[in-house]
Design a protein that fits this description.
Blueprint: H1 2-10, H2 12-48, E1 54-58, E2 70-71, H3 72-78, E3 84-99, E4 104-113, E5 123-126, E6 135-138, H4 140-143, E7 152-155, E8 160-168, E9 172-173, E10 176-182, H5 183-191, E11 210-211, E12 213-218, H6 224-234, E13 236-240, H7 241-247, H8 252-284, H9 286-294, H10 299-333, H11 343-364, H12 373-378
Helix pairs in contact: 1-10, 2-8, 2-10, 2-11, 8-11, 10-11
Length: 381
């Protein structure tokens, strides 16, 4: 490392400039990881909160929450499958909603489930479902739109009135806030006539035999063959909660691919810039390399020395850049933006930048092996 440390001290201006580029790449990669994690959480936070292992959809090549419909015999059939601990139906429908004073709440997703089941979210304020027939629990995002406990929400088109009795954390699906309602209310709003049944009449019983998906808790030792056979028997397609069921949410895969592509380009750019820098640096040091070779230094020694030089540069720059990105990201987590930092992701991205930089450097400093001492010493600067 003698030559490496000497060069770092001698040409500190050049290496500081190169280090600044790596700092910016590490900073942007860390910040992007926080944005991507926040974007993902904003899309599927409702699914993430489900205490489930698998979700069963209506049989389809492309399962979707919007287009799935399961019947009572399907979710009840799953309850008899060995290894399945519990199964509950879940209804999923998107509505436009407003307050009684016609204040628009934009899009909301109505989730219907049996009160007291494991699907019910943890309350932040208010009371659980069950006391009021049309009582609902709302996502924290709707509080930002002016909804409070005691308010009445009206679902456009079907004119179903929902009374807010509780609030929960910010749970969304497809970036749309969730309203948690009793299953009967969801079934009536989704399949019943606008405004409910005519006075003195009731809706047919068959209306209450439908849901969107079946949410399950399956024992860890249950084999995939058991799941496949149960799907055939119950005419469903079952996905594991993470990540398959997440991918059924609108836009989830596209968002993941877009952010990963941007991060990948940043890392590739980092490798190219480092490779170009050390290529030029190696050419400028040709006479010095020739002199060291003439004194008996081997190619292995010089390559090791050069890699040690770039490793020092990358370690310092990446640590600084990632630390700055993490520090700033913590401030954004407390804001209204969809931002979430995951230490494991930050560490893995930092390691990728270091590895990419080393690969780019290795491709450039191979020129060292081609330097002939006699030619290098006779070459004019």
């Amino acid at each position: 490392m003698f030559l490496a440390l000497r060069d770092l001290k001698f040409a500190k201006g050049r290496f500081l400039l190169m280090g600044l580029v790596v700092v910016l790449v590490a900073f942007l990669t860390t910040f992007l990881s926080g944005l991507s994690s926040g974007l993902i959480k904003n899309n599927i936070s409702g699914l993430m909160a489900l205490d489930a292992t698998h979700l069963a959809f209506e049989f389809s090549d492309k399962p979707s929450y919007r287009n799935s419909m399961v019947e009572r015999y399907m979710w009840e059939g799953w309850r008899d499958v060995p290894g399945v601990k519990t199964v509950e139906p879940l209804g999923h429908t998107m509505f436009n909603a407003r307050m009684l004073d016609d204040t628009s709440l934009d899009d909301v997703v109505l989730w219907g489930f049996e009160p007291g089941s494991f699907i019910e979210p943890k309350l932040v304020d208010g009371e659980p479902l069950g006391r009021l027939e049309n009582g609902v629990i709302v996502s924290d995002l709707l509080l930002d739109r002016g909804v409070q406990i005691g308010d009445t929400i009206v679902l456009d088109r079907v004119l179903t009135e929902l009374e807010v009795i509780g609030t929960t954390a910010e749970y969304n699906i497809g970036h749309v806030p969730i309203i948690y309602a009793p299953m009967r209310i969801w079934q009536e709003a989704t399949y019943g006539p606008p405004g409910g049944p005519p006075p003195g009449e009731k809706l047919p019983d068959i209306l209450y035999d439908f849901a969107s998906i079946a949410v399950m808790q399956v024992e860890s030792g249950t084999g995939s063959e058991t799941i496949v056979n149960a799907d055939l028997d119950n005419e469903t397609v079952t996905l594991s909660k993470d990540p398959e069921a997440y991918e059924a949410s609108t836009g989830y895969k596209e968002e993941i691919m877009t952010v990963q592509m941007i991060q990948g380009f940043l890392i590739i750019i980092s490798a190219i810039v480092i490779s170009a820098f050390f290529t030029v640096w190696t050419i400028q040091r040709t006479k010095e390399i020739g002199l060291v070779k003439a004194l008996g230094a081997s190619n292995v020694y010089l390559l090791r020395d050069a890699l040690g030089q770039v490793l020092c540069l990358l370690l310092i720059a990446v640590v600084i850049g990632s630390a700055l990105g993490y520090w700033l990201g913590l401030r954004f987590e407390d804001s209204a933006l969809s931002f979430m930092l995951e230490p494991n992701t930050v560490i893995s991205n930092s390691l990728l930048i270091i590895v990419a930089g080393l690969v780019g450097c290795a491709l450039s400093i191979r020129l060292i092996t081609r330097v002939e001492p006699i030619i290098a010493l006779g070459r004019e600067q």
